[in-house]
Amino acid sequence: MNDYHHGDLRQGLLVAAHAVLNEKGVHGVSLRACAAKAGVSHAAPTHHFKSLSGLLTELAVIAFKDFTAALRLAYDEGDAKHTLQQRLQTAGNAYLQYALSEPELFKLMFSSALPDHSNDRLCEVSGQAYAELTRVVKPLCDERGITGKESIEQAELLVWSTIHGYTHLSLKQMDVHGVCDDMKAGMPPMVILGALLQP
Amino acid sequence: MNDYHHGDLRQGLLVAAHAVLNEKGVHGVSLRACAAKAGVSHAAPTHHFKSLSGLLTELAVIAFKDFTAALRLAYDEGDAKHTLQQRLQTAGNAYLQYALSEPELFKLMFSSALPDHSNDRLCEVSGQAYAELTRVVKPLCDERGITGKESIEQAELLVWSTIHGYTHLSLKQMDVHGVCDDMKAGMPPMVILGALLQP
DNA sequence: TAATCTATCTTTACAGTGTAAAGATATCGT
DNA sequence: ACGATATCTTTACACTGTAAAGATAGATTA
Asked: Is residue A2 over pLDDT 60?
């Protein structure tokens, strides 16, 4: 006698997908492996997710929410006793730390192919993560006398680029050379970049 | 009567792989599709490349060489008549422009899964691209009074992170929303970031 | 020149993948 | 109690990478 009702297979598949992702990596995750891990037949996921992309998109949505929460927590912790620049550095470190604690999930979130990045909900939650990371940029621009909507948006873009780019590089280093000591130290002080790029 | 000798199938497969990459995207490239495009049976590539990963690794190696050449050209063009900071901005623009001109190839180069990033030759050519991009950083550090090997290396890392991160973001925007007007303008002026991060 | 050797490609085969269609089962509502 | 519906399974098919064995063309050698 087979169990025809799992209880909450949708959630079970998401948990299984997360596990398979961590075991086999972003490229090794398959719909059938997720189904097997959840203890159901290979075709069962179809009834809860339209496709593999659908399952991974949903997993990415959940991950972005966690990610945003982690960024928010780090931002709210060091409140008034730090300078705005220090808080930006802290935000960058939180970004990096999340990626290092959930490397495969992070790679999935920013994978170019697997999840559907045109999905509305995914766009929304990734936008929220972006907003959370760049939350300190606006006041920092005010402080430095940078005005104009366009300049502020460019500042946000560049801040995100720097932090995300460094995180991307760290993950690649981790893949090739294993865990490195430099990573526990967090991001390099971005003030160095400031010295290099100051007008 | 079948042709049992292609002439230069190795090169033919690399050309075919590039074509398939541009047609189907990074995730859509398959060994069998490359073989079909090259006009040979699906198992022929095995004798020239150990696997799909081997073929794509070789393609990435070639791409990195082109990439490095493009960066070097841009660097050598604007020589003495620009400030070091302007030359850094130029290098960043060249980085972005290559990615926008060969988006799928660029994505392949930095794809976490498909090519073998522990491959010695791939490590070497990607290292050369990195060195070319950050070539201006050392003299810029001298100019700004940044000394110490570690600080200079951190500066290089942060510069690469900013430029690569912005490029990554632009490609994602291109995937989701199509070609955008902002891209032809190149990178935002990194001096904005300097104003934000100055000590 | 003729035979053999070697490199190159094809054919065949197998395990794995996503996904669609149809069938089986269990729970829910009436 | 019984039919409706949601949920899962079975079956099927067209793909994928890759290994093994067979066929062919060109090169080498006697």
From this structure: no
Is the CB of A197 less than 8 angstroms away from the CB of B197? yes
The answer to whether A108 contacts chain B (CB < 8 Å) is: no
Which of B 34-93 have CB under 7 A of nucleic chain C?
A: 35, 40-44, 46-48
| Residue percentage of chain B with pLDDT more than 70 | 98
Q: State mean pLDDT over B55-78.
A: 95
Token readout for A84 is 């705005």
Chain position carrying tokens 């042709």: B3
Alpha-carbon span B63 to B81, nearest angstrom: 30
In the prediction, which pLDDT does A89 show? 96
pLDDT tens for each residue of A88-138: 999 999 999 999 999 999 999 999 888 999 999 999 999 999 999 999 999
| Domains in chain B with CATH codes | 1-49 (1.10.10), 60-197 (1.10.357.10)
Query: Could you tell me which residues come within 8 angstroms of residue A51 by beta carbon, excluding any fewer than 6 positions away?
Result: A31
CA A188 centroid distance within chain = 19
Q: What are phi and psi of B51, to 5 degrees?
A: -165, 180
Give B178's Cβ-side CA count (13 Å radius): 1
Distance A4 CA to C24 C1' (A): 9
Selected for mutation to probe chain A from B86, B161, B182 (highest A CB count within 10 Å) is B161
Q: How many residues does chain B have?
A: 199
pTM attached to this predicted model: 0.93
